[in-house]
Specification:
The protein is mostly helical. It has one domain. Helix content is about 75%, strand content about 0%. It has 13 helices and no strands. α4 runs parallel beside α9, α7 crosses α9 and α9 runs antiparallel to α12. The longest helix is centred in the middle third of the chain and has 26 residues. It is globular. The mean pLDDT is about 85.
Length: about 240
């Protein structure tokens, strides 16, 4: 597993894709937090990061699939997936290794944004006048959300040898589970079922964590989706192997 993990990490950083994706995310979020008049902190006048945590999931919906679309699609197209099958590694080890590599790159992309928190912390009046507990909860929620998107990216990459198809499918799954289910729940036809549909949406659990209260139900649901994605990917590859 760790051999696959290291191989994927090296592959990421030996190509321009990782740097381009990371740069796009950081520049986009920097513009939202500090430049755009509708969302920048200086115009808004309050020491908080609500704009960052509101828009970040939508950027991640595209960034994470771009990172992971090549995971298995490239292996299938190049014919190297069969070589992995003949190695001593189990299919589960291969999937987890690739998943952890995708998650690591996603986490490393988010990590530099902590400087936004530090800057806003210093700009507060008085210094430190920011809801730190809410920021921590939001970062935990964002990392878990990115972890779910990573699972979707790895899963869709196992569907096909076409990276573009894998990318589009991963974006669709990410958008549907984050925003689509929540929008469907708001349609006035479901009665009491709307609460259940809303509970299934990623935005419901992300917003809950963003309040600064870590509820085990939110964490369990998000982790369950990650495990389900890894299990489904393993099952698909096991079937293609046989």
């Amino acid at each position: 597993m760790w051999h696959i993990y290291i191989k994927e990490i090296n592959s990421f950083f030996n190509s321009l894709v990782a740097y381009i994706v990371m740069a796009i995310f950081l520049v986009s979020m920097g513009l939202i937090v500090w430049v755009f008049p509708e969302s920048n902190v200086l115009t808004y006048g309050y020491a908080e990061m609500s704009a960052f945590f509101y828009y970040a999931p939508y950027i991640l919906m595209f960034m994470v699939p771009a990172i992971n679309m090549r995971m298995f699609a490239e292996e299938q197209k190049a014919g190297t997936l069969e070589l992995l099958y003949t190695s001593p590694l189990k299919v589960t080890d291969i999937v987890i290794g690739k998943y952890l590599a995708g998650f690591t790159l996603m986490a490393l992309t988010i990590l530099p944004t902590i400087i936004y928190y530090y800057s806003i912390y210093q700009l507060g009046d008085p210094i430190g006048n920011i809801d730190t507990a809410r920021v921590i909860g939001s970062y935990i929620g964002l990392l878990l959300l990115g972890a779910v998107f990573t699972g979707f990216g790895v899963l869709t990459s196992s569907f096909t040898d076409n990276q573009i198809v894998a990318f589009i499918l991963a974006v669709f799954f990410s958008f549907f589970f984050h925003t689509g289910l929540s929008s469907i729940a708001n349609i006035n036809v479901w009665s009491d079922l709307s609460l259940f549909i809303e509970f299934l949406s990623l935005s419901y659990h992300y917003d809950s964590l963003s309040r600064g209260l870590i509820d085990s139900r939110d964490v369990i649901y998000l982790v369950s989706l990650i495990i389900l994605s890894i299990y489904s990917t393993t099952h698909i590859l096991e079937r293609s192997k046989s």
